[in-house]
Every structure is written in C-alpha cells, then in structure tokens.
Fold these 2 entries.
Entry 1:
Amino acid sequence: MGHTSLEKIIALQRNPANIRNLCILAHVDHGKTTLADCLVASNGIISSRLAGKLRYLDSREDEQIRGITMKSSAISLHYKHGDQEYLLNLIDSPGHVDFSSEVSTAVRLCDGAIVVVDAVEGVCPQTQVVLRQAWLENIRPVLVINKIDRLIMELKFTPQEAYTHLQKILEQVNAVTGTLFTSKVLEERAEKEKEEEKASETLSGDQVYDWSAGLEEVDDSHLYFSPDQGNVVFASAIDGWGFSIQQFAHIYSQRMGIKASVLLKTLWGDFYLNAKAKKIMKGAQAKGKKPLFVQFVLDNIWSLYNAVVTSRDKEKVEKVVASLGVKVMARDLRHSDPKVLLSAICSQWLPVSQAVLSMVCEKLPSPLDMASERVEKLMSVGARRFDSLPEQTQKLKTAFLQCSSDENAPVIVFVSKMFAVDTKALPQYKQRPLTQEEIAQRRELARQRHADRMAADQTAAESHKELSHSGNTSQESQSAGLNTAKMESLTLKDSKPEEEAELKETFIAFARIYSGVVKKGQRVFVLGPKYDPAQGLSMIPEGCSASDCVSDVPHLSCCSMESLYLLMGRELEELEEVPAGNVLGIRGLEECVLKSATLSTAPACPPFTPLNFEATPIVRVAIEPKHPSEMPKLVRGMRLLNQADPCAEVLIQETGEHVLVTAGEVHLQRCLDDLRDRFAKIEISASKPIIPFRETVVRPPKVDMVNEDLGKQQKVAIIHQVKEESSQGRSSDTLHVDPSGLVTLTTPNRLATVCVRAIPLPQEVTRLLESNSEVIRTLEQINMSLREGKSLDISPRTLEAIAGLKDQLDNLLQGRKWRNAVEHIWAFGPRRCGPNILLNSVESYQRLSVWQCLGRGDKTGETGAQAAVLRDFDNSIISGFQLATLSGPMCEEPLMGVCFCVERWDIQSSAPAQHQDSFEEDSISHKAFADSKVEGSSETSAQVEGMAAGRRPEPASSDCYGPVSGQLIAAMKEACRHAFQAQPQRLMAAMYTCEIMATAEVLGRVYGVLGKREGRVLHEEMKEGTDMFIIKAILPVAESFGFADEIRKRTSGLASPQLVFSHWEVISSDPYWVPTTEEEYLHFGEKADSANQALKYMNAVRRRKGLYVEEKIVEHAEKQRTLSKNK
Ligand SMILES: Nc1nc2c(ncn2[C@@H]2O[C@H](COP(=O)(O)OP(=O)(O)OP(=O)(O)O)[C@@H](O)[C@H]2O)c(=O)[nH]1
Ligand SMILES: [Mg+2]
C-alpha cells in the first residue's frame, strides 16, 4: 500500500469535498500509463526509479507485451496539497480505438479527466473522441502536454520553436472543445426558443431571431485550456518532470521580486521582460524578443538537457545541480545512462506528480460539485423529460447533489462494468502478514515440537539399543508412521481438485456511489435499463426495502453486496463500508448484473442513461472447441466473456454457430486469449472473421462494362433473369413483373394483391437514416405508445430531433419521383429503424403518418369501408417489409438504401375477420404473439415460412391458406424480394477509415500496402514542424485483416494505423454481370471469369451460409489459357 495506510484512506473517503474521481484519457501511446506510474510512485506504491518503466496499471500480461492498455483500471492515491489532504481515485484508460468502450465505462464514474496529448503528434483522432466523451458526460478536463523531451531530443527544436509548437497544440485542443461548446449552445438556444415559442404562441408572431444570439452572451473562457488558467501542465512523464506555470511564477517571484500574480498572467503569452526598465511588456513577437515562457522556463530545461544528456559536461551538471538546490546521489552521477541522472535531477526539481496532482485538486470538481444538469441527464432515460418522472424520483436529485453519507440517505450506485479477477487474488484468500501474537504463538509451538522430537529421539535410541536383536517392532512402528504420513498427503491431494473447481474467476463490479453509505452484505434493488420507477412505485408497498421484498416488478431484482473493495491497481483491499462519492469494487452481483446496472435502496430511483459507446462492434468470428465434447465449457466461457467485456457481444446465429462480435482485430485477439486462458480454459478454433455486407439496388447504368452506350439491352437481360426464376417453379400465375420493375403479387387465396416497386434511395438519405437510427427508434416507440392509446410526455429535445430529421428528409427527397414522399413514409426497416423506407403510394389508402407525434400533417384518413379493411392489415404489410429488408435475395444480408413503394393494394372485404386480431399485433408485443399461439393458429407460422421458401400450398378452399394477415406478410415479403431483383443489384461493403502517421522514407511502402488492399487515400499532409506525413485513407473491412500488422512490418514499426468503422459503400461491380453486347464478349470473353470482386464476396457469404452457389465448372481448360493471354 505504499506510504499511506488503509486507515488513512478510509478516513479520507468520508470527506467528499476532498475527493477527486478522475480518469486519464488520450490517444493511444500518448503516455497515460507512464504518467499514471509517476503518480502512483508519488504514493510509494512503486519505486520512483521504476516509474515509467513498470507501467504498473497495465497488469495483464498481454498489455505488457504489446505495450498498450486494454482494460481501464483504478487506483486510490493520497495527496497533500497545502494544508488539505486529498483522496484521488484515478482511472487509467486505454487509448486504442478497439477499447474505446473501456473509456466510456471509466468516464461515467468520474467528475474530471486528465487529457494527455503527445507534444509531437498533437491532437489525434482518439484525442477528439475522448474530448467528446468527456463532454457528453459533462466532466471537466485538464490538459497535460506530455513528451516535451521529444521536442528537445528528437526534433531538436530550439526553445523558441518549441514554444510556437506548443501554442499550436493548445490551439488545436481548444478548437475541438470550441466546436463541442458551440454546438451545445446552439442546441440549447433552439430548445429555449422553442419553449418561448410555445409560451408566446398566442402573442404576436413578428419576431426576429438573431442566429448567433446566445453565443456571445455565454462565457466560455473557463472551458478552454490555457496555462494561465492553471489547467495545463507541460510534462515528460518518462523523465519524471512536469510543471504548470504556477510553479515557475512561484520560483521567479522569489528570485526576481516580481509579483507572482503578474507572472501568472504573463508567463504564457506574448510578453517579454524589459530588463532595463524592469518591466514586463507586451508584444514580444512584434519586437523580436524572447517571450517570458521561453526565457524563464524552456531555456532552463533545454540547458539542463544539454548539460546532462547531449554534452554530458560534468562541471556544468554540478553547477546546475547546485543552482537548483537538488541533491544527487553519487551513483546517479556516475551512471552510464545519462537519463538516470536526468530523472534524478528532474524528479526533485519539477516532480510531475506534484504538478499534475495540484492541478487536479485545484481545477477538477469534487463529487459535491456535481452539476444539476448532469444529474438530470443521468436520470432521464430515452425520450422522457426529467419533469415527467414521478415526484419521488425527482426528489432523488437532491440526494445526488448532496452526495450525503448520512445513514438515512438513499443508496444510489452505478456499476459501469464487470471485471473478472482470479478468485485466488481476492484479499480473503491472500496470505496476510502475521501479527506479533501469532508469531509468538507459532514460535512457542515450534519450540515444543522440537523438544518433543529431541525427547522421542532419545527414548528411541535407548530402546533401539535394547531391542537390537529382534528389531521388528521398531520397523513396524516406522512403517506405520510412514503410512499415516502418506495418508495425510493423499487426503490433501484429494481435496485439491475440489478447491480448484471452486477457485475460478470472480466478477467484481466497477462502481461509484452517488449517494448514501454502502455496507458489506447490504441488500439493494438492481434496476435494469428498462425499469420504470413509476411502475415500481405503484407495485412495491411503501416502506418495503430490498431486504424483505420479493418483487415481481419487471426489470427489478434484489441482490446483496457480499464484499466491498478498494481498487488499488493490481490489488484489492477489503472494506466494511464505503461512503458516497467514491469509486469501489463490489463482489456478489454477477448473478444479477450483466454488464452495467444501477443499484439503489429506493425503488423510485430510475436506471441511469446507458453508456455512450463510440465503437461499433463489427468484426465477428464463429468459434468452436477443438474437441466437440467441450462445447458446454465453451458456452459457459463465452457467457463469462460477455459479462467481462463492455463491448464484446456473444450470440448464437440462426445457423447454430457461436459467434463473437468485437470492435476490431486487437480486441478480437484479446477476447480469444481471454476465452482460451481464463474463461473456457480449452483449446478453441476461431473462423476467419465474418465480414458483414449490405444489399442494395442502384439506378440502371447508362454504359456497359466497356463504356459503350447501353440503350435498352441491360433491362432486357434483367427481366429475362427474373422470368427465368419465376419459371423455375415459382407461382407465376400469382406473380407479374412489368418491364419497369413493378411487381404485382397475389396471395395464394387470391383475396389480396400488392404492387411493389423498389427504388434506390439517394445516398445522402441513406446516410441520414443511418446516422439517425436512434431518433427513428424513439419515433417508433412513441408511435407504438400512441397506437396503444398511451400518452407520453416527450421531451422537447426529442421532438426537435424528430422534426429535424423530417425536415432534412424533406430537403433531400426532391424531384418529381419523391413528391410528398416524406409524408407518406409507412415504416423504416429492418427492425423498424433501419436505412430502408416503405412508402405508401396507394391512392385510396390514407393512414396515420409516422410523424403523428409532431402533431402536424396529421391525417386521420377517410372512413371508407375499404380503407378500414386495409387498416386492419396495415401491420402485415409492415411485417413483410421488415422481413424482406432483414435479409435480401443476394446473400441474405440486410438491405440498405432501398425504398419499397407500394403502389396498389387491394383486399377483398370478404376476408375472414376472426383471425385478424390474433396476427395483427404480432409485431407489437410478444404477449399478443403468445395469445395467437394459444388460439391454436400456430400452424400458420409454419405456413408463412413455407410460402416464403417458395413452396406452394395445395389449392383448396381459402381457409386452408391460413389467416389472411399471415399470407399477406409472406406475399409482401416476396413482392419486395422480386421488386428488388427487378433492379440492378449491388453489394455494399463496410469501410474503415484509417489515419496513418509515417515518415517520408516509408511513405511509399504504406501506399503499396494500401493499394494492394483496395484502399483509397483521401488526403495526405505534412504534420507541421515535423517530418511526419499524415495519410487519411479508407479501406474495405473485408481487406483489413492483418493490415495493421503488415503496415507495421513493412515500415519497421514506424507507422501504425488505427482502423475506425466509417461507412458503407456500394461496390460498383455487378455480381450478376454477364457479357451481353458484342464489345463485352470481345473484351471479357464468353465466360467473363476475370475477377469480379462483388461476385467473390457474394459467393463467399453464400457458401458460409450454406446457400446455393452458382459456379461455372471449367469446360475448356485450353481455351481458358489462351484467354488469359489475350487479356
Ligand atoms: N519520449 C517520451 N516517451 C514517452 C513519454 N511518456 C511515455 N512515453 C513512451 O510512450 C510509449 C507509450 O506509453 P504508455 O504510457 O504505454 O501510453 P498509453 O497512453 O498508456 O498507451 P495506451 O494505454 O495503449 O493508449 C511508451 O513507450 C513510453 O515509454 C515521455 O514523456 N517521453
Ligand atoms: Mg496505457
């Protein structure tokens, strides 16, 4: 535990005003863990000589080997600042994109963050992401510009150049914060205006809005990083030094008699010292003078490095040491590595821990300073507004703000992740140092034993003499003794496996207490993400607590916290109770908490808003055990892995495969290692990554593959293809496809007909829908509640977002084809929120708009008999559309960017009505679905499937086809598939963006690797002041595996890219393309078997899914050879 005793920390935990919960955030490799080492060393937990080399918080073996952090881990530190003592709960987070979910879990528990930026690399993509994450969680950041030593040693900057460079970095960081701030102010202004609008609706309408109103009024100076604000530290974590300008202001105010407050304002900025006038003046740059920062600060550091490292001048060093007043040990002075001497001097002169921790104590908020805005954000889930929550729930806000550790205060705890530790590492299994009495007792015992043995030896020797002739008995007795010893060892061995089985992984919750005192063994409610406090309050009797409540409230369970731990990096310390405002570990929740949860003693507490995850899990692999008999172990292991990782997903696909979805290659590797070594403990084999695709349609191309004008030929070919299929056993008498691509399909009982056309959506629309999927999901939920007759109090922000989406759609869907389209949107799909649209162009059918919650364009529709019948089956059409968009005809991957337009839809009103109710609601709730099964119509679902697969039910009376709604679902799905096939079909590939930093020498090789993998360079620029190039490129996910490794190898580790999922892109080649024109035949040959990338991808997917793959068998090997020569 270092210098600080556990008792001390427990005492500090009781004073929330002096607690700081903070995390370290940065781009990968900017030095977070190294900085954390320095801070940890200041508490004596590790030796300061090892600080920076040990990377203490990277406790996993693979973290040490790879040199990157993969899990965030916490440690509690003690710091004395002025006359106050502080407790700092520090969390180190990973910087690699693959682990950005670990950042989200860390940020949620903190009130502040240290953002670290590499002085050479400056603001990198992940720096922007973490600043955004900090912003979204309303936590306050401070800045550490690290690796200043690289400016001296690597880039060989002069102090003046370094100063200019540092200024630029600050500008970059502030630009990011500025953008975040501006967008927030604009958003808030819009909200305010809207409320005002509501209030003044009855008043006169002529108002003029100033677009920038609000921006100027808001004071944002506290937001920005500036050394004179005291929120910036310059450091070199590896050499152990760091400073804020306060320190230098202090030094120089003593040495030169200038007021510290004056120095504080002028040490950073365009000021210089006029030695003659003994004044500090403005305008250093214009007059060509040295700024104060250069003269007073950087010059000193530069000359120190020069003396110690570059020239290794003993005399100079001694002078410097004397002038700084530091003490250096003789062996450091003699050490062959100058860096040792350097850190020995620097860590006394400008210890980085002191600079950083003082800044943290002064500038970061304590748990008591939590902004009420942040509390409301945490408490209002989804679309609900805070003031619509039950009154008791709203009252809990004061508990948050008070952060009280009173006995009566409600306990509110948030668990942001579960992490697994080896059970043997838990404190209760650890050997404790013995107390004095115990040692004395043992000594006594040992002495006794010794004395006994001496006595026994003596008597044995005597008896041996006596019985030296017969000698039997002694042997017997000896062997008996041996036997008992053996027996003992045997029993010991026997009990071991049992112990081992028990000693497995234990899950500890990574949590923070927002209110109340948590006691060991206490019972609390566990609130699931969907828990509704209003419902809970109405169902749980008043005064009922978690300890005596057997609840059947949905999404609520109870559980007890078996042990509480102080998190100390690699160690855990057991605690009896923990007061509010602290970060802690809790054991005993693994049964009720999967990944994150809210715990409370008050049923009125709402679940916290879900964590913001920046990374989309996209890389999936199928996993199986080497020995099939070990399947159960694998299943159990995967379940544990799922719980232990905030971002990994584990699922069983329809094909029965066990699939693991991860954020990227590095993450995948870590998950597999964990599975193999910790959770399943078996040999496993993983498939190649399964690459996701999307299917879409495009406008018919105007030129053919050899750039000749196409005319009508292409279309003929496509219709030919559809016809071919329909003649292959599909019911052609119910299906008709006209030359323009309009598909007419009649249900098998011939009572209903739908006409559907597929139209490609403009790219911008697809992108818009995709980026707004959350909004669409909310919209869908609201519509559902409205349909069920519930009224919802929707927050203005949500309404704003929905209206915004609608306006944007209106703007993008221009032209004759899309006239009025937005008003007629019927649904989005798949899963009701995807990037495809179902459009209602049935003239005689008016339905409620999906935008009904906006209150405008609200048409109740006509009340004709036909329309009423149609409305009853409305849901079947939507369900059919959802099914069709979920898996397309090309390779059963989801569709994207397709609009299905229903142009005609009739149902003969003689449709049997008794079945309708049961099926109509099936997609609304599971309950309704269950009901329908009870009614005995379960055979219909089988029939729906049968029809979807193209089997044709026997003709008989209309009843034998099952309920009309079911038939309609199938018909709609089929119609959509045919309509899709009637258009030129394309695959869409997932794309990564990557930013690669490389030096000029290796640039060529980077381009080489990118080109080989079908990557496209977007732009390339030179990083200012360095010889590094930054290349931004996009790369198909399908080609990305091994990319990072290859780049690293080819450039001898000089360039290392980070891949981030960016978007979906249409692959331009047509997978179904066959040569149709003379020129094409000439160019590609009859078989056209040159590489068709899209076809390759498509067939790979089909093969994986066990679908039929049409492949040409080589007919004339001879001809093939000549062909390839001709090419
Ligand atoms: N020259 C120099 N190198 C440093 C400094 N601080 C850290 N490094 C080096 O930078 C590399 C990365 O340091 P880490 O502390 O592991 O970086 P990190 O930010 O924790 O990285 P991730 O956790 O993987 O995101 C290591 O090789 C360090 O030795 C510094 O002040 N100067
Ligand atoms: Mg790290």
Entry 2:
Amino acid sequence: MDARELTSPSIEASLEAEIQATARHLFSLIDDARPSLLSQERWQQEMMDWAMADERLKVELFRFVDVFPTLRSSREIARHLREYFSQPGVEPPGALRAALGAAGPRSPLLPAATRVIRREMLSFAHRFIVGDDARSALSELRRLRDRGVGFTLDLLGEASVSESEAAAYQRRYLELLDDLCAAAAAWPAVPAIDQASWGPLPRVNVSIKVTSLDSQIDPLDFRGSVDAVKDALRPVVRKAVETGAFVNLDLEQFRYRDLTYTVFTELLDEPEFRAFDQAGVVVQAYLRDAGDDLQALTGWARARGRVVTVRLVKGAYWDYETVLAEQEGWPAPVFTHKPDSDANFERLARTMLESADVIRPAFASHNVRSLAAAVATARRLGLPDDGFEIQMLHGMGDQVKAAVLAMGLRLREYAPVGEVIPGMAYFVRRLLENTANESFLRGAFADGAGVDELITPPAPSADHDAPPRRLPVVEPTDPAAPGPFENQPHADFARVENRTKHLKALRRVADRLPLEAPLLIDGRDRRTPGRLASLDPARPARAVGTVCVAGPADVADAVAAASAAFPAWRDAPARERAGVLFRAAQIMRGELAELAALETCEAAKGIREADADVCEAIDFLEYYGREALRLDPPRRVGHAPGEVNQYFYQPRGVAAVIAPWNFPLAILTGMASAALVAGNTVVMKPAEQTPLVGAQLARILRAAGAPAGTVNLLQGLGEDVGEALVVHPEVALIAFTGSRAVGLHIMQRAAERPGRSWIKKVIAELGGKNAIIVDADADLDVAVLEVVGSAFGYQGQKCSACSRVIVLEPAFDEFVARLVEATRSLRIGPPDDPASRLGPVVSAEARATIREYVARGEREAKPALATPEPESGWPDGGYYVGPHIFTDVAPGAVIAQEEIFGPVLAVLKAHDLDEALVIANGTSYALTGGLISRSPAAIARCRHEFRVGNLYINRGITGAMVERHPFGGFAMSGVGSKAGGPDYLLQFLEPRVVTENTLRRGFAPPPEDDVGE
Ligand SMILES: Cc1cc2nc3c(=O)[nH]c(=O)nc-3n(C[C@H](O)[C@H](O)[C@H](O)COP(=O)(O)OP(=O)(O)OC[C@H]3O[C@@H](n4cnc5c(N)ncnc54)[C@H](O)[C@@H]3O)c2cc1C
C-alpha cells in the first residue's frame, strides 16, 4: 500500500479501528494480576502512591531522593529526612512518620533506620540501572537477552563541567565498547533481537549524550561546539565500526537539538563513516517543529543514499522546557497540551514508516496507544514486524514490555549504567515522568483508567498545526495603557536567527569603526577640540572611536540647559515623560544587536552578556516608565472628615548621572531614565572607557522625544568632568555607580559644596566582596557551574561577582578539584568570538591592578589555579588576565576582603554553617551572596543571617533582572534603594503633602466628594 492510500477518510477510519484493536490486544496480553506502577516492592510502591496522592509531599520526596546520594552519614540522612518532611504544609503518611520518629537525633534506632532507608533507596535507584559499571552490567544484559530483549546502553552522567570530565566520559565509552563487544561475541544468538528485516543487528548498542562529550558546549558557539563534539565522538564511532556496535545520539534539551543533528549528519558524512549504517538519532515528538526535524533527516539520508535509525520519543524534558521558556519569555518549543504530543508521535511514526527506504524506525514509548498506532500503521503499510522495533526504559512499563514480547515484536531496553550520584538526575526524571498527572503509565497502572479511555485517539488542540512561533514578539508600549511589565527576552542562541543576527551586527559595527560622537547640550550636538579615544580592550591597536571631551564651559552650559529645561519638564504630564522612555525602549529593541556589538567592541563584553546588558537597559526604560505612572497620581492620606490630605511627589531638579563601564548601557540607562521620568533633567557622564556606548543613549533619548535640555551628554575623565558636576551648585541630585573610593569622595564633596539652596542628594551604588557558600549537601554540578559563572563571567568585572567561595569541609576537596578543572576548561579569547568564555579586562590599568592582587594572593594563600601569560603573549596585545583561584585563604586576607574586579577567586573552608556565615558576613560590603544547599534548614537560616542586599539560593549570584530581582546592597556597598525595584524612583523625587481644611462654617463636603483618591 502506498502512503497516499493512508490519507483517505475511510482508510483513516479503518486504520483507527486497527490501532484500537492492536491496543486492546496489547492490553489483553498485560498480566494484570499484579498491577503496579513500577515495582512489586511494597515500600517502593507506597512511595509512588504517596507521591501521586499529594503534590507537596511529592516535591519533598523527590528532593530527598535527589540529595540522598550526597548524604555522607546517618545523622545527615536523618537530618534531611526531618527537614524535608516536617515543613509546614507537608503531611507525611503514617509509615513515613514512623520512620521519622526512628530517625530522631537521639533515637537508639537511628543507625538501623538509616540503614534501612539507604538500602531501600539504593534498591529503588537500581531499578532503573543495569549496573554500576560495564562489568557489573554484563550479567543483567545477558539476562535481558535471555528473555529476548535487546539493549541500548547509556553511561549515566549529564553535562560534564570540565574538559577532563568530558575526556573521562569519552574514555569510558571506548572501554565499554571494547569490553562489551568482546563479551558479546561469546553470547548465544537470539534471532528475535539480532536480526531485522534488513539484516543482522549489532548485539552491542550504545546511546550517547553530546553534552557529556564537551564541557564548553554552547549553541552560541555553534560551529566550535559541533567541531568539538565531533572530535570527541569520532573515536567512539570509529570504535563502533571496528567492533561492530551500534551508536545512537540521544536528544537532550531543546537548546542542543540543532547542534546534535548537525554533529550526527556531519560526522556520518565523513568519508570513513559513509558506509556505516549502524548509527541512530532521536526525534522528539513534543517539539512543535519535530516534523521539520524528521523531514530534514530523511532528506539528508536520501540525498546521501544512506540508511539511519531514528528513535521516536515524546521527549524527557517537558517540565524543564516549559518552565525555562516561561522564565525567559520565549515561545515554548514544546506542545503544552499532552494530546498534541501524542498525536504528533502518531503522525511522525507514520512518516517514519513511510520513509522505511532510509529510516529504520524505533518507537520509544510506554504508552500502549502510541505503540499500537505505530504497530498498526506499520502493518497497514505492509512492513514486516521485524522492520521496526519498540524501545522502553529499563525499570519502567514491565507489563507493557511483556505484552510487546508476547506479540512477537522486537523490544530493546534503554539500559543506563553507572553510579547512583551521577545517575540521580536521570532517576529523578524517571520518577517525575511516572508520577506526572498525564503519564500513560500512571493512568493505566496507578489511577486505574479504563482501556477505552486509554486507547481513544489523542485529540489535538486547535493550534496543533499552527506554525511554531520561534521568537518572542514585543509590541511598543502605549503610555495610556502600558500593560504589565515584562522583561525583554534575552536572545535565545539556540535559534539560528539570533546567532546570525548578533554575529552579523558584530561585523557591521566593526566595519563602521572608528566612530565619532559629539556632546549633547541643550538639544544640540556640540563638537569640542578635546578628544577622548576609546580603544578595543581585545585589540588596543584598534580605535573604537573618539568622543569630544567637555571642558568647564561645556559643563556649565550643560547644567544651565538642564536648569532651564527643568520647570517645563517637571510640569509635563507623567504620561508624556513615560512616553519618552517607552519610545526609547522601542528604538533600543530595533537596534539591539548593534548596541550589543558596540559593547563587545568597546567594553569587551561577550556576545551573550552584551545582549543581556541591552535587554536590561530596555527593562529599566519599561519599568521606570510604568513606575512613574504608578507614582504620579496624588494619594489621599488620613481619613479625618473635613480635611483632605494629598501626598504626591515632585522631582528634585538637575540630576548628574555618573556611570560605570561594566554595564555600559544598562546602568547609565537605569540611572538616567529614572531621573528623567521622575521629572528631573539630566546631565550624563558615561565612563571614560565606554563613551561611545554612552553616546548611544543620549542619541536614543533625543530620538525618543526628550525635549532639548532635558538630556545632556558630557564626556571626559571622572576626575575632571565628573568632579565638576558633583560640585556644581545647580546640581540637585547625583546618581553614581562605581567604586567605593570614588563614591565616598563624591558624598564628601557633595556635602562640602551643597546646591544653591539645597542639600545634594547622592545615590551611590558601590562595590561588593561577594561570597557563595557551598553546603556539604550541595549538588556539586550546580555549585561548580554557578560559581564559575558568577566568578568569571565578564572576567569578574561585576560588582555582583563572586570573589569568595566558602565551602563546607565535607564537600571541600571534591568541589575544589572540580572547580579548578572547570575553570581551566574556559577558553580565553576575544569577546566577539563565540568560543571565548573569558575575554580581556577593560584596560591596561585594570589589568595592572588585578596582577597586583594576584601577586598578593601568591604571598598570602595557595594558588590552586594560575593562568600564566602564554609564551607568545595574548592575542592582539589584548588586556587579558587569565582566571586565578586561591585556596588556604584566611578570612582576613587582602584577597578575601578587598574588591578586585577581575577573575580572581578566593576559596575558604568552613567547618560548619555557623563558621561559613561568620566568614561570609565578615567584610565591610553587603551586596550579593549565594548559597548552594539542599538543606531546607540551611536555606531558612541563610535567608535571615546571610546579610546582603541580594541573596541567591541554588543559582549564580549575578544577572539580576529588573523587577524580578531588584538590585543593590548596603553597608559599604552603597546608599540607595534597589535598582529595578519599587522604591528606586522615590529617590529621584521629593514627597509633598497638601492639607486642605474643607470645613467651612461648620459643614464639610461628604467624603466621596473629596478629591485625591
Ligand atoms: C528507549 C527510550 C529512549 C528515550 N530516549 C530519549 C531521548 O533521547 N531524549 C528524550 O528527550 N527522551 C527520551 N526518552 C523519554 C521519552 O521522551 C518520554 O519522556 C517517555 O518515554 C515518556 O513518554 P511515553 O510515551 O512513554 O508516555 P506518555 O505518558 O504517553 O507521555 C509522557 C510524555 O508526554 C509529554 N507531555 C507530558 N505532558 C505534556 C503536556 N502537557 N503537553 C505536551 N506534552 C506533554 C512528555 O514528553 C512526557 O514525557 C526515551 C524513552 C525511551 C523509552
């Protein structure tokens, strides 16, 4: 029968009848004498029942499972049990309560109780794995084969955090292939699994995850990542060719999808693998555009005249993908209606079967309806039963497996091998999958849904066939109806259009260099004889451009223009002022990639960080615009009759905005736009390292309609132009972000030289000496990656950067070893190269200061990682300083106390959380801090006792987002309220109250007639 025949309505109906008949047949073969979701073991079954009955309990239960392998003693197990299950709102069932009693700190039963728990947990985890290593897996694999079940072996382990871990993973696969293939040669043949309609099948079949093979894998560096993974994979595939094994590439999170397919097709296109037909890849039916993936694969295979195996799955990362998309403001790449995934699975199964000339189909599901659809379609198309295979996960759906075998179909199990710790993420994914409300296995074997219900055809939603939205769409904001604030979505670099857009913008901007920018005074460009050169820190020989420098007369003119513009701007409706910000945001969106590219050239910001900086600038404009509208209407205060009290705000006057270079657009935009929208007029002085980025903001605000004089731009050195603004008598308000020394100096000067008739208000956001505490029970994959990101992102040049990590003793050695290796793996190079993880620092002076601290560290601590200058020097004479990590650092050491603003990290050891907190709080700063822990008690304690402006738990400590993470510290970290938060704008305003006595001759208007509500 040809493919077209399957599409007529009557054939569709008869195919549906066959699918249902096949599904009923499968169900009839299921031995339902002992129905259970996963396991016959009473304890394990009970645990699954509890999880399914109570969502809150499920979270705690699975969190306990997740942390369990890192708990090193009975006391730790007992403590975590108590902490997880005695939280408010968590109702442990009777048996668990009894276990908790036995696990009390003083209970004589404690050792025995924790022994039992350990045994049960391990036995549970072992349901899903076939062995701790290849050798121990052999007997289980033999047992599978004896039962007529094939396998595909997966070495447990998720993303590698360092190149040494990635290399070890590759080595293990090579060894595995050698060992297994040697053993397999002696196995007796099992025709059901060793033979397909197209010929013999390899006995050894392995599944590989690309993220394990390259620790620096990143879709932004698409080409580099593809090449690195191919390099790591090539010897494995070569070994498979030699040993006669099968290799499958698993599909992971969506962001690695395109990369995985490119690795797969490019590698197989290499001459040595052209004839290799024992390779496979996965298609995830939950992806809205999975049909395109399949079409591309079949097209490629046909064009090359080759055959590949495709494993069709629904997809294992559904929760992750949906949460991530929502957090980032990206369109979800997955369907959000379960029947859509099911329907897509059936549709793709059909496409695969119709392409049997180039695709060897494998259907991986535990869902009887999904499997029946594949089987019935195959039979309808005239394919023999050995022309495809069914795959299921080890430890899941055993009853369905028995039915599949009884039908005489070929069955392969996905068989993970490895230790429990690296396997925990896999284990937890399986638990979540089994207990999800929409899981087929749960419906069939736990909730007792009827067969009719379980086999009805999936009903796709109305938008099932709509072309998937690839990029977010952000409409301009109308000041009359602004709608709720939403963060500007960062570029999703898994999307090729975003990568191309940013890389093209980098080339365009580079071609336009050197740029030139005048001052802006009273709405007019002003050119002055003095020039300030802006150099590319990655190539100091390249001038990014020059800007005109302001002299004393320019400062005076700018302030005079701002003063003159003030009354009209102050009295302009808030909507008009907010409108300027919203239009500026829209202009920035239109120029986003170019603005980011300019930051890369001028501030050496990497592509991702530069994109984030422009997004943050847009966020400030959108957020403060809305805040101004919120604060504008006068508020009624007090309720006494006969009196109306109105509380409202007025702006302060001329604001001097003095900004740093490390967030060259975002911070300048944040401070300037807050001042402006509040009704102040602004004189901006960008940092001398990033004057061209600063000039863009002035241009954009002007283009957005800021009236002449309301926004003025001066350029020059801080000690000249900045100082002149600080002491100018017409300046009412100074908004500064930068170093502690300069901040304190500004406050002093502002107090010494007050305004004409006012005390100058100073808002000063200063530095930090931020620490992350790594608890004994921390997930070290998370801890290492988040510390590396927080300490070395943008070369550590962020006030929020992590410069101290305080590790609890039990985790210390392993953490430090992995941290050092992960940091060593970071590639150092120019920021416009997507492969670079670390670029140069901003200037030669900054590099000299950092080098002094490194030398200091060498004297007062032990270098755990030093990055010497390469013999041939750094590329293009850029201002590079490689990352440095010091251990044995005393809490009072200079490198543990002073802000360094560079890639230098001090690691300190603490015996317990008490000591960790003393160290963490033991500096004069209080900006950001972090805790990586899976202990609810430690988390609760740090919330209160880790005294910093922004505390981040189980994540990195940089990258605060407007509105979600209002940002700013206290102590020596600054005076001022949180940027991007609800109190920020108030600092640019003065509150006033007008009280009117409405009582005349003894009568007052009724309260509702009073104005000002
Ligand atoms: C042998 C084998 C290999 C596998 N390899 C991979 C792999 O390489 N990569 C990978 O990602 N997965 C892989 N999986 C996992 C697979 O993707 C599924 O997560 C799992 O099999 C559950 O799907 P099901 O059809 O068995 O069960 P069902 O219960 O029918 O389906 C559950 C699945 O539906 C989807 N879903 C759940 N809720 C919704 C919703 N609201 N809207 C839309 N869709 C929803 C999810 O994908 C979920 O896993 C593999 C599975 C097997 C059996």
